[in-house]
Amino acid sequence: MFPNTHLPPPQPIITHWGTWLESAFFYADHFEEFKNVIENLEAKCIQNCKSIFNKLNVKYDLAYIKANFLCIVESIKKLTSNLSLVDSLKIVEQVENSVNELPTSTNSTIIKIKCKNV
Predict the structure, then answer these.
(1) What is the Cα–Cα distance from 75 to 21, expressed in whole angstroms?
(2) Fewer CB within 10 A of the end CB, N or C, for the chain?
(3) Which residues fall within 8 angstroms of residue 68, CB to CB, at 6 or more apart?
């Protein structure tokens, strides 16, 4: 557990995309706390993790994911319930519209292509 939270970090499940996004949201919210925990560890196997935390883009990438992809997690949860086909297609269309509204960048272009292929 982290010092300022009552929750352990989420455990992503390889085959469930929503769990990976939920983990990213958690680390976006608790980036500094997690970084402090890692920085205080001395094991040699942690060195790679420490170097990753020192890259500025990691924190910004997590914030970008949280700001732009919360709708995907919410939509996945809705799609796993017993919705009609019409309602399910509306949700997929809403996600597609949200993705298409992302500011243009290399990452958003890749995401838009992946979304279109789904």
Answers:
(1) 12
(2) C
(3) 98, 102
What pLDDT does 86 receive? Answer: 96
Query: What digits encode the pLDDT tens for the residues 91-117?
Result: 999 998 988 888 877 778 888 888 778
The CA distance from 4 to 67, in Å, is 22
> Taking the alpha carbons of 93, 104, 65, 114 in that order, is the dihedral positive or negative?
positive
pTM confidence score: 0.75
Find the helix or strand (DSSP H, E) in which 25 lies.
helix 17-29
Q: What are phi and psi of 84, to 5 degrees?
A: -70, 165
Residue 7 has pLDDT above 70, yes or no: no
